[in-house]
Amino acid sequence: MSGSVRNQPTLKAACFDLDGTLVDTGPLHLEAEKLALASLGIPEPAPDHPVTFGAGVLPGMQMLADHYSLSSAEHVLDVYLPAWKSVFESGLEPLPGADDALRAIAAAGIPLVLVTSGENEYVEDVLARFDWTGLFMHRVTLESVTNLKPHPEPYLCAAELLELPPQNCAGFEDSPSGLRALESAGVYSVIVRPDHTDSPELSVANMKLSSLVELDNVLISRMFGV
To answer: Which spans in the chain are helix H?
Structure first.
């Protein structure tokens, strides 16, 4: 763990990104893209295949459509969604420490909010799969906002739902896009990824964790004063 909880604002709620922070969807997302492209006549992704993970579903499909000269983002989405459903049902797992951390935070009486660019239906499926539905007080999804991360709107929306100033919320993210959203919203930023020391763009986070295994009861108590 790096970063410090000294001189931090008073934290009263925890906001969590979903994909890449709580669940290991990155490899599944790429596999679904490969299957979708194959069905569109592109047998293998290009060496410079765009990184769409974390961009949101439709923006990601637009990146693929532009990169591979396909007719439209909607057309790519039509073949991507069945591919995603297939790999999602067979391989989705929580990331290390995610389940324990969420349950410990909820048990401590700290409000939890999910802040994701995913669609409501997808979010409901994930939460139900891991029995997380009752842990979150609020959810901010694709349908909740006009602007997705890295825009601050998703986290400002979460703070509004909580009836808290943004600076009294902690946000847990794994991507530069998510970190920019936290910074712009004025939310206390926690980056969670094993390679954070190799990513200079993540160095500005208030706290950096290699995994949610580090977010144990001791750290939760130090962060939230419980």
So the answer is: 26-39, 57-67, 73-91, 98-107, 120-129, 153-162, 176-185, 217-224
Pairwise CA distance, residues 64 & 181, whole Å: 23
pTM given for the model? 0.83
Query: CA–CA separation, 61 vs 131, rounded Å?
Result: 30
Q: Flag the least confident range among 4-8, 90-94, 174-178, 202-206.
A: 4-8
169 and 211 assigned to the same domain: yes
Are 12 and 189 within 8 A, CB to CB? Answer: no
Determine the pLDDT at residue 29: 83
With a CB cutoff of 8 Å and minimum separation 6, the contacts of 151 are 145, 181, 184
Furthest C-alpha separation in the chain: 55
User: Helices 153-162 and 176-185 sit at what angle, rounded to 10 degrees?
Assistant: 50
In angstroms, the CA 91 to CA 88 distance is 6
| Location of structure tokens 């592109």 | 42
Domain holding 142: CATH number?
3.40.50.1000
Range of the domain at 193: 2-24+94-224
Question: Cβ neighbours of residue 147 under 8 Å, at least 6 residues apart?
Answer: 153, 154
The residues near 195 (Cβ < 8 Å, ≥ 6 apart) are: none
CB atoms within 10 A of CB 210: 17
CB contact at 8 A, 155 and 181: yes
